[in-house]
Amino acid sequence: MESLLLKNGLVVTMNADNEIKLPMDVLVEGGEIVRIDKEIKEKADEILDCKNQVIFPGFICAHTHLYSALLRGAPMNILPPTDFTQNLQRIWWPMDEALTLEDAYTSTLYAVYELALNGVTAYLDTYSGPNAIEGSLDRISKATQDVGTRGAVCFEQTERRSQEEGRRGLEENRRFISQNNPEKTLVYGIYCLHASFTVSDELMHKTVEYADKTNSFRTIHTSEGLVDLQHNLERYGKRTVERLYDEGFLGSRTALAHAVHINQREIDLIAETNTNVAHNPKSNELNAVGVAQLPEMLEKGINIGVGNDGFIYDAIENMRTAYLMHKLNHLNPSQVPTPLQVVQMITINAAQAIGLKDQIGSIEVGKKGDFVILDTSALPTPIHEGNVYGHMVYGSFSRRDIKRVVVNGKTIVKNGIHTSLDASQVSQQSKDSAIKLWDRLDLTPRVVPL
Ligand SMILES: [Zn+2]
Q1: What does the pLDDT look like over 298-354, one tens digit per residue?
Q2: How far is the CA of 130 from the centre of ligand 1 (A)?
Q3: SS3 of residue 428 by DSSP
Q4: Are strands 53-57 and 3-12 parallel, antiparallel or unpaired?
Q5: Residues with C-beta atoms within 5 A of ion ligand 1
Q6: Cα(375) to centroid of ligand 1, in Å?
Q7: Residue 61 alpha carbon to ligand 1 centre in Å
Q8: How many CB atoms lie within 10 A of CB 35?
Q9: In the chain, fewer beta carbons within 10 Å around the N or the C end?
């Protein structure tokens, strides 16, 4: 059984009491944390001196679209979108329809690789490629395992083009879930509906029925833009979260992505059902959809994780935007979230928001050995138990300080370099896929491959 011993680190546990321990040793055996103590003298296969280093639980991205990596820098030959719906119609949906199974692998490999370099050891991804559905989740799983991180994966079920497409998406999720035991693999399957404005009650019922049968986690984009709210009000006479509540979609094994255009009644329903929310502040800024009512949701005790929605991969940067956005929105520099709350949103709360709270998100005996180890030597001021969260949000730490990224007790990133993957190969595979994808999207005339 392989073992790893971290010695003399400042351990930010993110446990229920938010304990910070200094200096402390952490022993991992067979991928699991077995002991946290002042001085562990047992032998281990690998012993790391973490003096002057901070040990965090691995960062977690609560909501993403890994395939979006292939769209970066694409020369858009379209009329610029002026609202969320046009964003979907002119950018995302044409891209979805052009994706192949090869793209599912190469985009995931690049994106998860980059997430890992940023200290992200687990993610929840929703994939959409309606012309290459069957087998897509296996490609995403393979790429994730090649990088060595954890993932919750699903195909984004939608009936935007046809009911048959929704049925096939549901079946791809059901198949992957049935074939992958979450206890035995780093990648596990969940159910996903795209958004309530692109699915029928029938598909929602079926998804709830299937998910309940296997106690599977589920997610859905929720009132990200006004179109979702307007659709549900016009067609069902209900607001989005009210419809999800009536259809039995809410609960502690559900994550709502965004939840921007919701009212107090909907916040109450999310709180009452212990439903999770994935907050994506940078994406909300990019798409100009509005500001989620994070302080109000926190006030109600709703569990919130931070995601990137396929945009910026730097977990620390996403966390900082979650910290700052609501202060500006409320014109109040003391507005929540606090530094502690945003660190929780990329660790323990994000773990809950992707259905893995029992396994990851904190440094505790019995949990998996997933860590981000940050070097403190470049900090301008001392670090101690009382200011760790402040150092995280006030600009002290960045990706450059990430010394190691560990998943299941195994180092996957050391001093900014992946331990088994070649950076140029990962990048080249992604570029090759992007060039072909852009060609299918009729964007090639302006592309000059390097
Ligand atoms: Zn999304």
Answers
A1: 999 999 999 999 999 999 999 999 999 999 999 999 999 999 999 999 999 999 999
A2: 16
A3: helix
A4: parallel
A5: 309
A6: 32
A7: 12
A8: 13
A9: C
